[in-house]
Write the structure tokens for this entry.
Amino acid sequence: MMLGQGRHYFSTLGSSSVIASMSTSTPYHIHITYFPIRARCEPVLLLLADSGMQFEYEEIPLVKWGRMKKTGKVTPAMFPSGGVPVLRVTDKSSKQRSEFLLGETSAILSYLEEILAPPGATVCLRMNCASTEALISRQLNKDLPLQTRVRTQMIKEGALFFTNRVWQLSVEKDWLAPPSRDKIWKAITVRYLRNTESALGELQKEMKVVPEETDPLTALHAAVTAAITFITQLFPSAKRGLMPGGDFPLCGQLWMSVMTRPKVIAYWEEHTIAEKAWTIVEYGTAEWIAKEAAKYDSPSLLVKL
């Protein structure tokens, strides 16, 4: 199949669709398989879209997925973690051109962060030299000091855990109505934002956490951005807390720095990502979430945090 730039394609596998991003030279052929929703693939798409690398995005309708499971087509050989998303990568520079398969969002993000990084890409690490703060560069996340590296992993995993926890609640029709809505905000969302703000603040003492436009995105950036995008759609008033002077300004800076990047904006608009459902149930659609927010969202969310 020949892929163009930013066009939609329909594969020969039933009604599954394949999307190609804008093209930048790469030795890898990248293929992502997921459902026609945002959920666990949102941070993966952020990394891929911002990289400018060409990739295929195959969406498997739920009805087709059910048939595949019943007929024994969901095997470890094709779906290594037993579900989706699945990343398939072929190294075009290798004579064997063998295919590498990987499941689970966290693992996929870590892998993509490394193979998508431009040659010579570095991260900025802060070190205190006497009374003067200096910035030095180290190669990628994997070459950071252990404590810094695991701190970034903690923040990434925290974002993925938070979103998965809330998505599971969307099976109930009234999940975004009081009293469930209040519990999601106070007991889950505020706790996540407060913990993430604190963790980013500590990490910022060691490295730059808010990417500039020329910096490559990391798995941490993508995971936190996906989580905050989801939060701002559930609770639009939460945006005020992400602004300078709010309770979570560092979270807000990171989120805005990613969502205003030109390639992310272009991909999101071209493929109408914001209009897609977050989860597989009818109460997780963009329309349902917006409708519930219109009824119940209130600026009083940020009072007495």
Notes: The radius of gyration is 20 Å. Strands lie at 8-10, 17-20, 28-34, 55-59, 86-91, 99-103, 122-129, 132-139. The chain has nine helices and eight strands.
